[in-house]
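User: I'm putting together notes for a lab meeting next week and I want to include a structural view of one of the chains we've been expressing. I don't have a solved structure, so I'd like a prediction I can at least talk through. The sequence is below, exactly as it appears in our construct file.
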Amino acid sequence: MEDSIFDENGIHKLAPFKTQATTKITIDFWEECVRIYIVFMQTSKQENSAEKLLIENILTLKRNHRILNKKFKVSGDYKTVHIDGIVYDIPSFFNMEMIKNNDEKTWEMIFYKIFSNEIHEALSQVPMSKEDRR
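Assistant: Thanks for the context. Below is the predicted structure for the 134-residue chain, given as structure tokens.
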């Protein structure tokens, strides 16, 4: 009897899990609060056939770990943002209308720029398997 999860040599086709870490930003404009999370995702390395993608989707796990939770206040002229008593300049290359209209993607980029060091430090502390480091 042939089972589809074993190859012709009887070796299991499912590869070990691979851990990936990404970041996610949520912004609450009403409460003026920004939260930054590290999202850990474990997926198995497989070819992209329809059956294998279904198995991979079932085996995919997500976990969030909050690294920052900060209150912010935007100045009236939308040129600075105040966080924990520190004033950060909003770079002039961001579209002013998008900033005023609370465009989520624009504000995500602004907060990625402001908190880049904290995000990098948190991501560098994520444990990785030997295979992931290659």
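A couple of points you could mention at the meeting. The chain has four helices and five strands. The first strand starts at residue 17 and ends at 28.

User: Perfect, that's what I needed.
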